[in-house]
Amino acid sequence: MRLHHDRSLLLIVDFQAGLLPVIEGGTAAIEEASWLAGIANALHIPVWLTEQYPEKLGGTSARLLDELGEHKIWQKHHFSVMEEPSFAQALEALSPKQVVICGTEAHICVLQSALGLLEAGYQVFWLSEATASRRKEEARLARERACANGVVAVSADMVAYEWLYQCDTPLFKEVHQRFLKPRSARPVTFF
User: What is d(CA 115, CA 119) in angstroms, rounded to the nearest whole number?
Assistant: First the structure.
């Protein structure tokens, strides 16, 4: 059950400007999501973002958008993005088998989207240090519930190295210099 870059999609859920001020660990979660998105872009892995009711909660955080390369934004009104027909159809057409998911709030939109992805037959990987809620305990419970139903909890480093697969390629050397080496001394915090 290893991640493969040619079968993956990175889904970043609702890191919205109006919501982030009340999210415990929101800044750290955005840093992790944007770090992994950089690697995804280097490996040509699609990066999709969602925005929940942006008319009220604002758009995606400028801090995250500033760090992202190529990406697609989906607006939604359902808590699970899989209930949005245009998203579900586009995902099916793209046909990734594995979805790495992160975002806010863990116990609402991330959890419901993860469960919806499972129900649709995707392998779902919960990016633990990039998934947060207003209260840390709710983020922890959401991860536990998701994993009890078949989602796999992962760290950004796990995902990055599985996507890279081997260390003797020019692409690995480029990604190592740009992303992996500067990160090696940073502590990891899971929400």
Answer: 6
> Is pTM beyond 0.90 here?
yes
Residue 161 CB neighbours (<10 A):
17
Taking the C-alpha atoms of residue 17 and residue 73, their distance in angstroms, rounded to an integer, is 14
Q: How many Cβ atoms are within 10 Å of 99's Cβ, its own excluded? A: 23
Query: Residues 79-101: what's their mean pLDDT?
Result: 97
The upper half-sphere exposure of residue 20, i.e. CA atoms within 13 Å in the direction of its Cβ, equals 22
At position 130, the amino acid (one-letter code) is A
> Considering only CA atoms, which of 156, 125, 121, 172 is closest in space to residue 34?
156
Termini Cα distance of the chain: 23
The two structure tokens encoding residue 185 = 């001394």
- The amino acid at 191: F
Distances (CA, A) of 123 to 43, 96, 152, 166: 19, 9, 8, 22
